[in-house]
Amino acid sequence: MPASRRRATLATVAASAGVSVATVSKVLNGRSDVAPATRSLVLSLLEQHEYVAPPQRRGEAAVLDTIEVEFDTDLNAYSTEIVQGAVEAGTELDVAVVVSIRTSADRVGAWARGLVAAGRRALIAVTSELTAGQLAALSRAQLPLVVIDPLNLPQTPVTSVGSTNFAGGLAATQHLLSLGHRRIAYLGGLATAGCNQARLHGYRAAMESVGAAVPPCYVRSGHFHYQDGVAGGAALFDLPDTPTAIFAGCDEIALGVLEAARARGLRVPEDLSIVGFDDTQIAPMASPPLTTVRQPLREMGAVAVRTALRLAAGEKVDSHRVELATELVVRASTAPVSSA
């Protein structure tokens, strides 16, 4: 690294503060025998110098390498599958996996340095919206990053793991078209999310291939949440030409649509067919069981762990983007379009 970008040392911070290295060490270790004004000054300079504590040295006892799997929202059925795969891979590779939820209030520099100070070998960010500041902070801290289904598409090249979202969206819509549906709507997540865009493009490609119209009101975006399915479904049912089928961008949205249909007295699949995406554990437990596109979520978590370890070891990865195959799983929430 250039001299101007080298990691600051305790001596660097101590010299700037006009105190001893021992005093800076006491502040880092949370000791109480430091004057409040001195503590405040040292903490400010640690932040200013972007100080990162060196990883703890291994003692005689074995210490597992640790990877952090971080979310920026509450965990759900999708998250659980990712974590399960990551933990299983960690167990196989003798690596500890720590799961965390980061709040937007976290200071970017302190957040990245804290991960390194805690001994993390790499970070796996799941369905996160990454800013240029976050990416720069991780780069300065020399902490490898792997992203699973990012909610935005960073301009800086980022190693990511996902699935064949376009192919999944295409398969879901083709299934509905094969059942005779032509008035098919799409309820997706964030419009800026790369995975959502790919699923939407797959839907549009299938519709265009048979000349089926896609009115603007048939495409709605929101979040990958149950309530978005409830609200989105209700809005679609208020249209003059209501859809006979809905492709939902995730299983949670699909379950919300099921509830909106129930509230309107619509029968699924007799009056409305629904296809989800993910095939989380809630899909077969829905009523009726949900037709959905299966993502290999556990394998995605496992691949992310293996990739993160390779990056941490200084190895080159074959591709900065890994896409695992999706598969349509047909259950009872889809049926041929009613002739009524």
Automatic annotation (TrEMBL):
InterPro entries: HTH_LacI (IPR000843), LacI/GalR-like_sensor (IPR046335), Lambda_DNA-bd_dom_sf (IPR010982), Peripla_BP_I (IPR028082). Keywords: DNA-binding, Transcription, Transcription regulation. CDD domains: HTH_LacI. Residues 8-62 form the HTH lacI-type domain. PROSITE patterns: HTH_LACI_2. SMART domains: HTH_LACI. It holds the Pfam family LacI. SUPFAM superfamilies: lambda repressor-like DNA-binding domains, Periplasmic binding protein-like I. This is LacI family transcriptional regulator. It comes from Microbispora corallina.
